[in-house]
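Please decode residue identities from the backbone states below.
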């Protein structure tokens, strides 16, 4: 049927769903181009990507990228988000069409999710993706038979090459223009008599949920089955009280009869799939393919571990050494900009605010953007190739011995970028104990926000010219920091899992996807999105924080101090120490002195509570004010290197640097992480416990490092 142009008050809404690693996000990127943006689902902290595309007849269409899920049974928070997005629950708008992406190499398994979505009688366009990989695996798919069995539009694609994307757009265009006639085939299997009896009695109660458009008997029956397999007495699923009460009563009746409802429904769906697939999918006898050959090395206990360490070493070399030219360029640019402001404006409040507050503070943080980009680049490539799953498989052996579940690997790896999405990523862990254990351990993973601090201190106390073998000392120190932070996170999980969170550990069940070449456009898009997110979210926090810190360091201005030797280093130091920030730092100094810190570092630690990277901006403000700084002045590291304690000893020695690094590796210093932890755990108790144990450990370890170093004769 030819599409009929339509006129709507709002955009059409299409939900892009599918199994993890099915190429769902690649197709989403291909359809939306550069229009995607990242946000949060209303009221929850799971990340969602939305984008727009324009179709010839349907017009403007909004797409949402639903988290990857193997089923709609809400055992984990991500699966709950998926069902909420598809049904339009919890304040979300129900999509007009679901674009369901199926992995062509594992079509039988992916049909399970398709059957679940169809049961809700939602218009669906199925996309069988990765046809090239399927062909390489000897998989032959009969599309005519597939369309005939399910009765919905089905398109084949190779999304990473943009093949078939045009046909997806045409199919969506036609379906959206004829929504009233869109096929809704519903259930592909018939429940057994016992299960049918279980589903009766829900009709009237679910009718109250009509706002979710459960307006057909089939969709209401699907919702009843979903409730029976998803709800449990302690579940936080948003369900009306009468419906919850009825569901729990039916579950008790089923349990009393000794039946396993989840197993019954899963088995029935796979029996239906087994009946369908012989006429749809034909597989050639397999030989030992390239994926298996590569896996024989990369998942080998010895050689796989060697490759893993080499890859990690390569990443740290890139972060510390390869990014240096770009850092130098940004450093010089901000220095010239600050110098230009100083020469263009008369001395006074405005010049100080612009040159020493905004430009020096923000510039000292933005300069580390190349390292953050390198980190995201490597993570995106490793994920795109399928290596991350192998790394999880390798690390699981160690994690299991320490009491941490293997599913925690990906959230913990995300922690190297930022603790906030990492804690949100624990929603894929369906066991509450394992999830809480992972959340409490993630802050010990050294996130990218700590990277500017590490880099600044390493460059300050370990000159880049110093080398051990062919690697610079700084690279090795950075490698040790990240290795230790990973070890500490696992040890903390091991300790907590054997004390406050005792419980049984379950084995890891993980699918290893085939190796693929990562999609360059998706990698580039991720880099652009992360860069924008860093500059807009972290950057805005840093901007406000540095301006506030500059004001705290600049006021009050004592006329007595100003009159004495104005413009000299002595006058500048006196002004700083008499400022609001200096007074706070002086109050903290007796507590921080045993760690080797002075009042200036104390002020930096206070600023780091807003965001860890603000520490660098704070140092930029502190050392950028005074010391005769002008457009010809040396950089922040040199200014810090020249700093002295009151007795004339250098403040920034290797021992002070290591003590401060140890403190930053452990301390809980991110307000945003605390807020996310409170939301994800639903408990202030666990949030305060996390702050308490990390802060205490940070102080004690830093104290041990500094005082122990002094006893061994280090300065």
């Amino acid at each position: 049927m030819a599409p009929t142009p339509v006129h709507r008050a709002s955009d059409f809404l299409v939900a892009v769903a599918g199994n993890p690693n099915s190429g769902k996000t690649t197709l989403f990127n291909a359809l939306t181009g550069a229009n995607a943006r990242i946000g949060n689902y209303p009221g929850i902290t799971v990340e969602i990507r939305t984008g727009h595309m324009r179709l010839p007849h349907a017009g403007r269409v909004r797409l949402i990228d639903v988290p990857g899920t193997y089923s709609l049974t809400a055992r984990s928070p991500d699966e709950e988000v998926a069902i909420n997005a598809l049904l339009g629950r919890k304040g979300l708008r129900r999509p007009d069409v679901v674009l369901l992406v199926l992995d062509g190499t594992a079509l039988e398994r992916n049909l399970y999710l398709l059957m679940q979505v169809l049961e809700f009688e939602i218009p669906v366009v199925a996309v069988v993706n990765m046809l090239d990989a399927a062909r390489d695996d000897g998989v032959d798919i009969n599309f005519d038979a597939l369309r005939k069995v399910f009765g919905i539009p089905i398109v084949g694609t190779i999304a990473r090459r943009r093949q078939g994307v045009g046909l997806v757009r045409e199919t969506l265009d036609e379906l959206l223009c004829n929504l009233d006639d869109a096929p809704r085939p519903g259930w592909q299997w018939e429940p057994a008599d016992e299960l049918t009896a279980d589903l009766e009695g829900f009709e009237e109660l679910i009718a109250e949920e009509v706002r979710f458009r459960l307006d057909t008997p089939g969709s209401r029956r699907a919702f009843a089955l979903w409730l029976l397999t998803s709800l449990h007495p302690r579940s936080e699923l948003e369900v009306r009280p009468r419906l919850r009460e009825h569901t729990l009563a039916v579950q008790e009746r089923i349990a009393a009869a000794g039946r396993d409802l989840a197993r019954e429904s899963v088995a029935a769906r796979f029996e239906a799939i087994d009946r369908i697939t012989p006429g749809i999918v034909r597989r050639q006898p397999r030989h030992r393919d390239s994926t298996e050959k590569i896996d024989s090395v990369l998942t080998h206990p010895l050689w796989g571990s060697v490759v893993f360490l080499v890859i990690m070493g390569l990443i740290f070399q890139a972060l510390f050494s390869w990014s240096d030219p770009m850092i130098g360029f940004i450093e010089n640019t901000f220095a010239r900009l600050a110098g230009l402001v100083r020469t263009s404006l008369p001395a006074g409040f405005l010049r100080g605010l612009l040159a020493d507050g905004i430009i020096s503070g923000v510039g000292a943080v933005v300069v580390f953007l190349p390292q953050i980009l390198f980190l995201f680049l490597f993570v995106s490539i490793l994920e795109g190739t399928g290596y991350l799953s192998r790394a999880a498989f390798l690390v699981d052996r160690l994690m299991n011995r320490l009491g941490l579940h293997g599913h925690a690997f990906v959230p913990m790896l995300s922690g190297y970028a930022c603790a906030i999405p990492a804690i949100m990523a624990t929603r894929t862990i369906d066991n509450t104990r394992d999830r809480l254990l992972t959340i409490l351990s993630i802050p010990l993973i050294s996130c990218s926000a700590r990277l500017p601090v590490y880099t600044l201190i390493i460059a300050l106390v370990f000159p880049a010219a110093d080398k051990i073998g062919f690697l610079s000392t700084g690279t090795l120190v950075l490698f040790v920091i990240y290795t230790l932070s990973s070890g500490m996170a696992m040890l903390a999980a091991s300790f907590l899992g054997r004390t406050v969170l005792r419980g049984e550990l379950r084995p890891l069940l993980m699918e290893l996807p085939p190796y693929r070449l990562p999609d360059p456009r998706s990698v580039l898009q991720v880099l652009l999105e992360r860069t924008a997110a860093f500059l807009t979210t972290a950057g805005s926090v840093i901007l406000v924080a540095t301006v506030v810190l500059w004001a705290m360091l600049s006021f009050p201005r004592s006329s007595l101090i100003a009159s004495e030797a104005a413009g000299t280093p002595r006058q500048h130091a006196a002004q700083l120490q008499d400022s609001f920030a200096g007074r706070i730092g002086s109050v903290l100094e007796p507590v921080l002195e045993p760690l080797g810190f002075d009042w200036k570092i104390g002020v930096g630690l206070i600023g780091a509570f807003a965001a860890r990277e603000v520490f660098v901006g704070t140092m930029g403000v502190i050392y950028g004010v005074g010391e005769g700084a002008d457009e010809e002045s040396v950089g922040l590291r040199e200014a810090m290197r020249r700093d002295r304690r009151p007795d004339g000893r250098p403040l920034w020695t290797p021992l002070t640097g290591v003590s401060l690094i140890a403190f930053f590796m452990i301390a809980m210093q991110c307000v945003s992480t605390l807020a996310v932890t409170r939301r994800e755990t639903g408990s202030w108790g666990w949030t305060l416990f996390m702050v308490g144990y990390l802060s205490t450990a940070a102080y004690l370890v830093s104290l041990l490092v500094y005082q122990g170093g002094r006893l061994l004769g280090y300065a």
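Observation: The two ends are 82 Å apart (CA to CA).
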